[in-house]
Design a protein that fits this description.
The complex is a heterodimer of chains A (308) and B (198). Chain A is mainly alpha-helical and 308 residues long. Chain A contains 15 helices and two strands. Chain A folds into two domains: 33 residues; 258 residues, MetI-like (MetI-like fold), CATH 1.10.3720. The chains are: A mainly alpha (308), B alpha/beta (198).
Chain lengths: 308, 198
């Protein structure tokens, strides 16, 4: 009888104090990260909203004139520039990145694949200011020559010396490569070997198998990689401020442009009053962009999980 | 397909219609069209049932919808799946049960009109009822196709095979009609049969 009770699994467990302490430390650590997000959200919203009340949302978001000295705070060109730049970078970078990840996962000999992976990781770790510097030394002069040739007889074109939207797109396209390659090659690698074998066993070639089986199967991961690339592109500042000319303009390829991020960067340190409020308003717009992209990412991933 | 396995060791020759498949210059795509394969675990492509079966013919250049749906219907009928999926043909193949998926894989292999059907332990991932359905299917299909099946299950071999080849550690030990193998005097074969029946 005694034996049975001491053996029972219902005897109340005594948790050592240390156990509790460690648990609490974990919770506190987790809370700090959550707190940071909450603080940023509160701060961005509380400082970003006033400008909407001062000059009105319409004037602020859709206004086309940005002239702080004369009290004009329209950020529409910057919003448009950010969107066009991001789309351009993804349009140029995504095909490159997708084909690279196909090469990495399906075609490359193991040694070369490993080497490439290391180099791509390296690319991801390069500080963005370096991208900007290299871009301004290589891409900007190159585009300057093209610009001269195209607009040689144009009476209205304002020459940018190569520092324009196109330069920013090209620099950014290279910067988002590692992000897209990483995520899409992970999802390509997750395609079951058996499915590929089946495709080959039916007489399909390697390339047919890649395009008809691997890519459709890895679709949701590839979509997620695009969204992540977009997120990376929208928020980039340092690299593109050096190559984009930094003038508020409509986003045409050979126009010097200013983006949401570079707009804040260029003026925040000396701003005050309404001007400062307007810059904080830009930060809020950027914040909404990023949040929307993250939400999109969640939806893409969730939908992908459901399909499996 | 063994060229995809790193360090696979190949010895001997295999002749198909009098042609050695291990000779240089063999057209792998044509060879794989002639030899259908069914693997251990059912692995439909993540697409509709129809597209799964139509995949092979499409790869080999058949585009006509009428022709394709004819092939799909015939092949699904051959594996006795047609009645079960008639109304869900456009639905995802991943929603089928394991046994249905394996029959779909067989139908998919049949769709390129192979001469030989290679089956690598086609029932080892299935429950007994699905296993029986597949075994019956193999017997029916053997009227029109040469089927080569790999199995560790002697009862299954006895059930479906006309000839048995017994391999051990990569070497062919003995090959003969099913009846002769099962009563063979070869010590290695005997040992395997005894061990298995215990």
């Amino acid at each position: 009888m005694n034996d049975v009770t001491t053996n029972s699994i219902y005897i109340k467990e005594k948790k050592p104090i240390l156990e509790y302490l460690v648990e609490i430390i974990f919770v506190i650590c987790a809370l700090i990260a959550v707190l940071a997000v909450a603080l940023i959200t509160v701060y961005i919203i509380s400082t970003g909203v006033p400008i909407f009340n001062v000059i009105g949302a319409r004037e602020f978001l859709l206004g086309t004139k940005w002239d702080p000295a004369n009290g004009q705070f329209g950020i529409f060109p910057m919003i448009l520039s950010s969107i066009i730049m991001t789309m351009g970078a993804v349009l140029v970078g995504f095909p490159l990145a997708l084909l690279t990840s196909i090469f990495l996962t399906e075609l490359a000999p193991p040694a070369i694949g490993k080497l490439l992976t290391i180099l791509i990781d390296l690319l991801a770790g390069i500080p963005s200011i370096i991208f900007g510097l290299v871009g301004s030394v290589i891409i900007v002069p190159f585009l300057a020559r093209i610009e001269e040739r195209i607009f040689i007889n144009s009476p209205t074109h304002i020459f940018t010396g190569g520092a324009n939207l196109l330069s920013a797109i090209l620099v950014l396209a290279i910067m988002i490569l590692p992000t897209i390659i990483k995520v899409s090659s992970t999802s390509l690698r997750a395609v079951a070997k058996e499915i590929k074998s089946y495709s080959l066993s039916l007489g399909a070639t390697k390339i047919q198998t890649i395009f008809k089986i691997c890519i459709p199967t890895a679709r949701s991961g590839i979509l997620a990689s695009i969204v992540l690339g977009i997120g990376r592109a929208v928020g980039e500042t340092m690299a593109i401020i050096l190559v984009s000319g930094n003038v508020v303009n409509l986003p045409l390829p050979f126009n010097a442009v200013r983006f949401l991020t570079t707009g804040i960067m260029a003026e925040f340190s000396y701003s005050s009053g309404i001007h400062r409020q307007a810059l904080l308003g830009i930060a809020l717009v950027l914040f909404v962009f990023i949040m929307t992209i993250n939400l999109l990412l969640h939806i893409v991933i969730r939908r992908g999980a459901q399909n499996e | 397909m063994n060229d995809l396995i790193p360090n696979a060791k190949i010895g001997g020759n295999i002749f198909l219609d009098g042609e050695n498949i291990y000779r240089r210059g063999v057209n792998l795509s044509l060879l794989r069209k002639k030899v259908g394969m069914v693997f251990q675990s059912p692995n439909p492509f993540p697409m509709s049932i129809f597209d799964n079966v139509a995949y092979g013919p499409r790869i080999h250049g058949i585009k006509s919808r009428k022709l394709l749906s004819g092939i799909v219907e015939r092949c699904l009928n051959d594996v006795m799946l047609l009645d079960e999926v008639k109304d869900t043909m456009r639905g995802s193949a991943l929603r089928l049960s394991g046994g249905q998926q394996q029959r779909l894989c067989i139908a998919r292999a049949l769709a390129v009109s192979p001469e030989v059907l290679l089956m690598d332990e086609p029932t080892s991932a299935l429950d007994p009822i699905s296993t029986e359905a597949i075994e019956e299917l193999m017997l029916r299909l053997s009227a029109n196709y040469t089927i080569v099946i790999v199995t560790h299950n002697i009862a299954q071999a006895r059930e479906v095979a006309d000839y048995i080849a017994f391999f051990q550690a990569g070497e062919l030990v003995q090959m003969d009609t099913t009846a002769k193998i099962l009563t063979s005097a070869n010590p290695l074969t005997r040992e395997f049969l005894m061990g298995n029946s215990l």
